[in-house]
Design brief:
The chain is α+β, with helices and mostly antiparallel strands. The protein is built from eleven helices and five strands. The radius of gyration is 36 Å and the shape is rod-shaped.
């Protein structure tokens, strides 16, 4: 509220200064016995270009037209005075308006119009003393030098701000691109996890179809559940891509500590694998969301790799615990690397690489390697403050 009020006061002050300066131009010209209507037309064109509200600005009133037309009008008036060998006063209003238009041209006009319109505005400003050169005499170069300093200062400031705008636009674009790539990676993780589960359970169903057809129902139910979860994951993730500002629970992708229990509960294969979750009571749900999401990805990727590379594993242990001010997430299995999946479904081995980058970005560390005896363990450590 204070910011909006402050901007409104600043804009009102600028408008007041411009109107007062423009009125001074007309009054000075009239008081000296010169025709005031050419000055009034030039000043009104400049005021309209500077002060026209953005919401009511027609499409044809582009920055090029706004900054170029008043400058051409001012230059034409100066040229007309010189052609008839007359003289006309110039006041502060027209000079200030041309400086404002120069600022707008350099900062907002597209390239190369910024250079063209900026040159028009600067040239029109520098030509103002020529209208009254007979009276100014030797002072004319001095006035033009002052104008040159003003033109250089305003153009330099506008160019600097234009550079900042460009850098900000690039930074925002890179940030959005990085966020969308991260969301796409999340979507890949979700779908890969569920589709891998569907593949494993489908292979199990094919083996059971001839020998134990009466036990197929739980397996088919698992396939149905995995497919439903995959579709839900895609729906939630696409929802985030469409409405990045929505924070409702049903539109955010699954990925927190609470979801790990559902993940481990739905992982085990009937009669083949058992997943045990050990969660330290000190590990609460108020940890930063990015840490919870990364912990979820660690468990998800580790379980997916168990399916891909250790189909003979019978005992899988997932642990969440605190060690001082660190959250430790580990997934261990007792498999010996006998994969049930064909080579085409085993992946290229980039999942752990990307996962380690995610963990490292949060200031943590991750290790994946064989355990003593049989099995494999994935262990990630995140620095967190205990609540």
């Amino acid at each position: 509220m204070r910011t909006v009020s402050g901007r409104g006061c600043a804009r009102g002050f600028v408008v007041g200064v411009l109107l007062a300066a423009a009125a001074a131009d007309v009054l000075i010209t009239s008081a000296e016995g010169h025709s005031a209507w050419p000055v009034a037309l030039v000043v009104l064109a400049g005021l309209a270009a500077v002060l026209w509200p953005v919401a009511r600005r027609p499409r044809w009133l582009t920055p090029q037209v706004r900054t170029g037309a008043p400058a051409l009008a001012s230059a034409a008036y100066t040229g007309g005075v010189l052609l008839v060998r007359g003289e006309a006063l110039f006041g502060p209003g027209e000079a200030v308006i041309l400086l404002c238009l120069l600022f707008i041209a350099v900062r907002h006009c597209p390239h190369p119009w910024a250079l063209v319109c900026g040159a028009l505005d600067g040239g029109a400003l520098l030509a103002l003393p020529l209208r009254y050169y007979r009276e100014l005499g030797s002072s004319t170069p001095g006035f033009m030098a002052i104008g040159l300093v003003l033109v250089g200062g305003v153009a330099g400031l506008a160019g600097y701000l234009r550079t900042l705008d460009y850098r900000r636009t690039v930074a925002v674009g890179e940030t959005r691109r990085a966020e969308r790539l991260a969301i796409a990676a999340d979507l890949h993780d979700f779908v890969a996890h569920h589709v891998t589960g569907i593949l494993v359970q489908t292979q199990m169903a094919r083996m059971m179809a001839s020998s134990r057809p009466d036990e197929l129902d739980p397996v088919l139910a698992g396939i149905e559940r995995a497919a439903t979860e995959a579709l839900a994951s895609m729906r939630r993730t696409v929802g985030v891509l469409r409405d990045s500002g929505v924070e409702s629970a049903d539109r955010r992708p699954v990925g927190d500590l609470a979801a790990i229990a559902d993940l481990t509960g739905g992982f085990a294969s009937p009669g083949a694998q058992r997943v045990t979750l050990h969660r330290d009571p000190a590990v609460t749900d108020d940890l930063p969301h990015e840490v919870q999401a990364a912990a979820f990805r660690v468990v998800q990727e580790a379980l997916t790799n168990v399916r891909r590379h250790a189909g003979d594993a019978t005992e899988i242990t997932v642990r969440l615990r605190h060690e001082g001010d660190r959250l430790v997430v580990s997934v261990a299995d007792d498999g010996r690397g006998c994969s049930r999946l064909p080579d085409a479904a085993r992946g290229g081995g980039f999942g752990l690489v990307g996962l380690k980058e995610r963990v490292t970005a949060l200031g943590g560390d991750m290790h994946a390697g064989p355990r003593e005896g049989d099995g494999w363990e994935v262990r990630a450590v995140f620095p967190v403050a205990k609540s």
